[in-house]
Amino acid sequence: xxRRAFVGGLAGLGVLAAMPGRxxxxxxxxxxxxxxxxxxxxxxxxxxxGGSESAMIKKFEGVFAKYADVNFIALSALGPDGRSASSxxxxxxxxxxxxxIARRYGSRFREFQGGRIDVVSTxxxxxxxxVLTKTTLKGHSPFDVVFIVxxxxxxxxxxxxxxxxxxxxxxxxxxxxxxxxxxxxNRLIADLQKG
Length: 195
Hints:
Blueprint: H1 3-16, H2 29-47, H3 53-67, H4 70-78, H5 87-106, E1 116-125, E2 128-136, E3 143-150, E4 156-161, E5 164-165, H6 166-180, H7 185-194
Antiparallel strand pairs: 1-2, 2-3, 3-4, 4-5
Helix pairs in contact: 1-5, 2-3, 4-5, 4-6, 5-7
Protein name: ABC transporter substrate-binding protein
Keywords: Signal
Signal peptide: 1-25
């Protein structure tokens, strides 16, 4: 597997990690780092469990639901087009987006077997914590992945793979999908639901 393929799959983990979770109290740098250690441990456990692809996707969604915020990621991915959307459209988009992300990246999780992610350091930047990790894949040089955790609610909100924000990448992808549908958000939602 190429490093590019791994980075693409890891990007999916970042977005999938933005699934709805319970609100947490304001956190410290140590708690942000602990959160990412738990996320990484749970992900590695599922990857190495040997389960079927569909079972793994379901487990990943369950793990990510504990730690993050699908509303933030989904509506950020929708970008300016979300401003004119009704509350019903926003709710439907968030639900459809979750399924879309799970399907899009779920098939790549097996590619991570034998790789590892190690937390290196954590620093606070304004209202978030940046948890720097070193990602190693068999046969490749280690590279940096920064997990972004909100210091306000303790939820996982983004990640940067080699400096590239996953939220911004998904915004471009969703924007292109919406353009192909001439800006029809209802049509995009329906197509995302179909898979």
